[in-house]
Predict the structure.
Amino acid sequence: MISAMSLKIKGWRKIIKWSIWGILGILLLIFLIRVAVFEHNYYFEKDGSERAVAEGAEEAQEELVEVEPTIMEIQEYRVAADRPRYLSIEKLGIEKARVLPMGVNSKGELSTPNNIFDVGWYDASGKPGQGGTMIIDGHNGGPHVFGVFKNLPELVKGDKIIIERGDGEMFIYNVVENETVALADSDAYMKTAAKSPVAGKESVTLISCTGEWSQQQRTYLSRQFTRAVLENS
């Protein structure tokens, strides 16, 4: 009789043990499902909302540098005599941002400098004083700090952009137009951006991300194109 009762007790213990594990498994599964649903809903709600500061790079950017170059680093920056060295826009508080020569990435897109306070000059575009159109891009922000071109949309017709060449000569460009273009249309607009807005005049086009942020696409949904022509040319 005692042995039979002992077997029954052991059997119930096994049942209770596996029941507890089963309940814990179900609870864990419910928790994971709730997390997945919450994450999906969160990204869906955030899609299209504007971010004050960039949370990530527009493409899988390597680590962005968010420290402003020192005065010494700026002064010691050198380029060839015929290339753009510094960019200044008094209205936006930009003074002698270093202009780094850049190419295109593996996707055929313009590359941007790692430091969000530098700007990139597409080295297959024009050069200052040679009559063509320079293309210069820059970040509007990094993970924690606003970038050099955060306020680019504020420029209006007549505002001045100053490019200092490697030999020290200054070139002043007057803004002619400042367009916000949807991301879907930005590639097509590049053909326009690569030409002068005024026929026969040397120009510069500044480009940056702007507008609303898409968490799903992990990029801004617009691009800013600021076009300016050389003064007295």
